[in-house]
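hey so u asked for the seq, here:
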Amino acid sequence: MQFFGESNIDFLKKRWIFFGISIFFVLIGLFSLIVRGGPDLGIDFKGGTMLELTFINPVSVAEIRETLIGSDLHGSEIQNFTKDNRVIIRVKKSNNTGIEMSRNIQKALSAGLKDNSFVIERDEMVGPSVGKYLIKRAKGAVFWSFIGIIIYVALRFKSGVYGMAGVIALIHDVFIVFGVLSFFNKEITLTVIAALLALAGYSINDTIVVYDRIRETTRLRRKDTFYDIVNKGINSTLNRTIITSLTTFLVVGSLFVFGGGVIHDFSFTLLFGIIIGTYSSIAIAAPLVYEWETRKGKK
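ran it, structure tokens below
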């Protein structure tokens, strides 16, 4: 399938425009994080109360949320399993103790859903020490994934330039998506971290395809300038990149629309990640290699 036919777009000519667009969005994300006092960490990282309940009759997430809001219990994460009428409610740490918060939730549900009694399966409190441990582990997962990518790309292309340029583009993607999450006031949970790592894998795979084509074009067109080779490499993978991104976007879009609140933030993160990852593979990763190699050649 061909969207553009044999395209011949001069992407490198517009590279400084692309770099400027990226810097603009990075600054917006940074501004949002500063204004909000950092990312809005979820219960996984900040601690809080978790209740697992089994209701006698089916109950929807909307009903539970309305009942809790009516009792002035805001900001709860609700996950339901329709097969066995099981519901998991998570509430961030507040001035109330875990026991008080648990009792308040139970009272609110008993009063608001009088015709639907429930059984408490689990009543737990996530403490701050667990939250700190999870933050440390999440940072470690992101850091070591980046190190692994640098090593893999450097060995594959026998050049540290490709590895470093790929990871810079990857950090660019993750940071912009992180800024988008902050701008829309989305909570950072373990599910969102998983989405960011999935984005990292998706983005670097797309970038490697472009890098592979640049390497192949270098062998086939030895008389061409590196400028023309990079442009040819991007253009020859453009159809593949657009088709892959479009089909992935449609799948994730379906999850976002029909998947429900449980995976809403996960799919939201991936939706923006696919757009930004596709953009960076075309407009950031390859132009970075060109700039790097050109400046190294001048020296």
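The chain has a mean pLDDT of 82. Strands lie at 40-41, 48-55, 76-81, 86-92, 118-126, 187-188.
lmk if thats what u needed
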